Amino acid sequence: MNQLVDDAATSPAGGRRTVLDVRDLRVQVDTARGTAAIVNGLSYSVAAGETVAVVGESGSGKSVSVMALLGLLPGHARVSGTAAFRGRDLLAMSEAELRTVRGNGIGMVFQDPMTSLNPVLTVGRQLTEGLLAHGRAGGRRAARARAAELLADVGLPDPKGALDRYPHELSGGMRQRVVIAIALSGDPALLIADEATTALDVTVQAQILELVAGLQREHGTGVVWITHDLGVVAGTADRVLVMYGGRCVEDGSVDDVFETPAHPYTRGLLGALPALHDDDGADGAPAERPDLVAIGGTPPPPTDLPAGCVFWPRCPVRGDERCATEQPPLVPVRGGGPVPHRAATFYGDRLQQAEVGA
Ligand SMILES: Nc1ncnc2c1ncn2[C@@H]1O[C@H](COP(=O)(O)OP(=O)(O)OP(=O)(O)O)[C@@H](O)[C@H]1O
Ligand SMILES: [Mg+2]
Q1: 124-138, 170-184, 185-199, 263-277: which range is least confident on average?
Q2: Could you read off the pLDDT of 188-247 as tens digits, one per residue?
Q3: Which of 171, 251, 259, 279 lies 20 to 30 Å (CA to CA) from residue 4?
Q4: In 3-state terms, what secondary structure has residue 25?
Q5: How many structural domains comprise the chain?
Q6: Range of the structural domain that residue 92 is part of
Q7: Is 239 close to ligand 1, i.e. is its CB under 6 Å away?
Q8: Ligand 2 centroid vs 39 CA: distance in angstroms?
Q9: Dihedral, CA atoms, 209, 210, 212, 214, nearest 10 degrees?
Q10: Can you spell out the DSSP letters for 126-156?
Q11: Is 146 a domain residue?
Q12: Cα–Cα distance between 261 and 276 in angstroms, integer?
């Protein structure tokens, strides 16, 4: 429990309103191979106007962790913890309340656009229904005009023509842009984007990132941005949360985590993208280049997580008995900037040892 108190005390939201506050989120699913512990005590918050990027290898629980917030997991998934959205716990809401929040308050874009689109309704209908339902457009005609404007904003060619098309008549990239337009149409307080721009070409991606940044400036939208693209993280996020085995193993400002990663896993992850470290540091000096460590092996399946540190079987540091038996808590890293920088390892060189030893 102390962990939760510490988290709240060091909330990076600072003076800004907290839009989303996730505490001790856990997701388990019973499978034929035993219980899969997919998300294991995840806590983070997102302030108004802030972008928190979530990174981590495939299977680390990124998608499941956000689907749990929105009540989109299959019924047999066991979800616990709290997730306050504008002060109300999403995890305690009824399906009807969640539907309202999903349409008006939280915008979401998932990896596969077809999961969010209704195949039997035209693009125009899907966009205008949301606009009309939330009173964001006068009448049907105004809603259509606004819908076309939104499609133009996400870079869809011939936006007016696209209004009368069905999802299957569009390419994958176009469908993804329609989903993004729908997600942004309600001026959401929170946007959850799961690999939202991965399939899009770089020009369109840049246009969409700019659009989201505009929404954040104008409406203070908080953003959770799940991506494999560390270039996008560096360019758009304020903070980054590194997930491994359903846990946060490191979080902090993008500058702190990218320039001086404390967790061996983060170092390995960043090492996979050496070009990223060629940027100059804020003071004009070259950024410190972390050891380029290729991470050998694969992540453990959620049905078979190691007892101690979830990363130790692959860890290049090769710790000791303690790593095999004890879970390292997230503790502050020394020497970072104003935003708390934390890592969950017994072998980060700049960890506040007093707390590690506690
Ligand atoms: N309904 C389910 N039942 C059982 N296991 C599941 C279920 N959904 C996801 N998982 C497992 O949970 C783990 C995390 O999945 P998740 O989709 O959240 O990963 P991810 O971090 O989003 O990966 P990627 O980067 O590939 O999108 C995976 O091992 C996956 O197989
Ligand atoms: Mg995913």
Answers
A1: 263-277
A2: 999 999 999 888 888 989 999 999 999 999 999 999 999 988 889 999 999 999 999 999
A3: 259
A4: strand
A5: 1
A6: 2-105+186-357
A7: no
A8: 13
A9: 170
A10: HHHHHHHHTT-SSSHHHHHHHHHHHHHHTT-
A11: no
A12: 13
